[in-house]
Amino acid sequence: MKKYVPVFLNISLFLLLFSCKPKQNVVYMSNDNFQQEVSQAKYSGLHIQEGDQLQIQVSAFDDIAVQPFNRNSMGQTATAGSGGGASAPSEYLVTSEGTIIFPVLGSVYCKGMTKQQLKADLESRLKRYLTDPLVTITLSNFNFSVLGEVKGPGQKTSTTEKINLFQAIALAGDLTYDANKTNIKLIRTSEETGKDEVVSLDLTEASIVNSPYYYLQQNDILYVEPDRNKQISVNNNPNVDNWIKYGGVGLGLLTLIISLTR
């Protein structure tokens, strides 16, 4: 029996080491040039899309002159004595043609613009009617979806428009242990073609912060794939891993007992 002890010992050690093998690609942005990469991160702003709800407020030195350019909660332009004016922002829906209907100015095309670009465009148009107009724009319905190996999948709404990949994942409760951090799929509608494009992102690389997809746009979809181990376990008996793990420990103990009693 003694001659079989080394064999049992080797097998048990193999099973134990196999069951305790460290998981790969667990750490976010784990490469060595982390500081250099993060220092280059830039935010270019959201691009306005069809269906966006924009809150726009116009103000100027003359409160009375500015009133026609602000709508009240009923969608009517404010008038003197109505309590309207620039007291509150007005909301505008971006139409399927990519425009908003702005008081006095009429139809204004804004699809694909950043908020800063639309702000500059409106202020330029308003200078015909107002002295030193100031336009403030906010997006009131910034939505995105996170699916797959996260703890809280589904559509999410952010209270801020500047949100990156990690903040989006945090709103979904973080990734599960079975998530594949090296191959996160991001689905985004192309402004040029109007079609959905799919890109793969590796969250273990610090260079992710330089990606044009690092900051989310309206209606982006993130899909977190399961890692290879999870994909294999789904197709196999879910108890196999446990049998290997506990079998290795049991066989190791049995080998130890035999060697001590001989």
- Beta-strand share of residues: 15-25%
The ordered H/E elements are HHEHEEEHEEEHEEEHH
Rounded to the nearest angstrom, the radius of gyration is 29 Å
Report how far the terminal alpha carbons are from each other. 9 Å
Question: In terms of structural class, how would the helical and strand content be classed?
Answer: alpha+beta
What is the helix fraction of residues, given as a range?
Answer: 25-40%
What would you call the quaternary organization? single chain
Instruction: Say how many strands there are.
Output: 10
Strand order of the largest sheet: 7-6-10-8-9
Give the low-confidence spans: 34-39, 79-86
The dominant shape is: rod-shaped
Sheet with the most strands, sense and barrel status: 5 strands, mixed
What do the pLDDT scores average to?
79
Work out the helix count: 7
What this model shows, in words?
The protein is an alpha+beta fold and 262 residues long. The chain contains seven helices and ten strands. The protein has helices spanning 5-19, 34-38, 63-66, 115-126, 165-171, 228-235, 240-261; strands at residues 53-59, 90-93, 99-102, 106-109, 134-139, 143-148, 154-157, 179-189, 196-201, 221-226. The strands form three sheets. The protein has a five-stranded mixed sheet with strand order 7-6-10-8-9. It has a three-stranded antiparallel sheet with strand order 2-1-5, covered by helices on one side. A two-stranded antiparallel sheet has the order 3-4. Strand 3 and strand 4 (106-109) form a beta hairpin. The longest helix has 22 residues, at 240-261. The chain is rod-shaped, with a radius of gyration of 29 Å. The termini are close together. The relative contact order is 0.18. Mean pLDDT is 79; it is low at 34-39 and 79-86.
